[in-house]
């Protein structure tokens, strides 16, 4: 009986010693880890984030701005398992980012972020209010590039005119006016041929129908030749037919501005 009691004490003694060393080791690891993660090589900074090469209209320091506005420049570490999600959310908050496709972190090197950027397709022209860039969905974009960085590029973008509404939200959000959204979608469709066709303006308006009203669009060239596009609905197969029709007319007359007066305005609304 005494022998059993001695073995029992020995067994529990060994367990106690093992737990003591395990606890000491864990505490030591947490202490060492707390010292390591605060070292500069494990801290996140803009120069250690590799992103998809930004287009020219995105500011050079936009990664640093994202880190600063999200607070990740001061309280993040590459040891944080939730860092990819935090980075994804931070980049999605930028008005220039349409989609975050992948975030991969690795220490001590940093992080890689694969992005899809928003592309300006038109400038909404507001009387006495200036020009507002929008993407193909009608999302308002920052104006810095078009006003202070490269104002000469403004001439290469389609203008959306006749808009009386102001944006309902901040940059990175929808304008909030269906006429702007429709015109921006049409600008996205014509983006690759606008310069070739000499197009400079999209003019959306409301047209009365037996059941209410609908949005229709007119186009205008630099020499003020008008094209009646009619109703525009995204993914309508007629859109491609109308686009090709414009290209055919321009090729036939060597320019939309050379179309004989009796065939103007160019009417695509019935196509």
Q: What class do helices, strands and sheet pairing give?
A: alpha/beta
Main sheet characteristics: 7 strands, mixed
Tell me, briefly, the overall form: elongated
Overall mean pLDDT stands at 85
What is the percent of helical residues? 25-40%
Strand content: 15-25%
Strand order of the largest sheet: 5-4-6-7-8-9-10
Estimated radius of gyration? 30 Å
CATH fold field value of the largest domain: Rossmann fold
* Highest-level CATH class of the largest domain: Alpha Beta
The CATH architecture classification of the largest domain is 3-Layer(aba) Sandwich
| Domain module tally | 2
Explain the overall architecture.
The protein has about 270 residues and is an alpha/beta fold. The chain folds into two domains: about 40-115, Ubiquitin-like (UB roll), CATH 3.10.20; about 120-265, Rossmann fold. The chain is built from eight helices and ten strands. It has helices at about 1-35, 60-70, 70-75, 85-90, 145-150, 180-190, 195, 240-255, and strands at about 50, 95-105, 110-115, 120-125, 130-135, 160, 200-210, 210-220, 225-230, 265. The longest helix has about 35 residues, at about 1-35. It starts with a helix and ends with a strand. Mean pLDDT is about 85; it is low at about 25-35.
Describe the protein's topology.
Layout lengths: L1 H35 L12 E3 L10 H9 L1 H4 L7 H10 L4 E10 L3 E8 L2 E7 L3 E6 L8 H6 L8 E3 L17 H13 L3 H4 L1 E11 L2 E10 L4 E6 L6 H16 L12 E2 L4
Parallel strand pairs: 1-3, 4-6, 6-7, 9-10
Antiparallel strand pairs: 2-3, 4-5, 7-8, 8-9
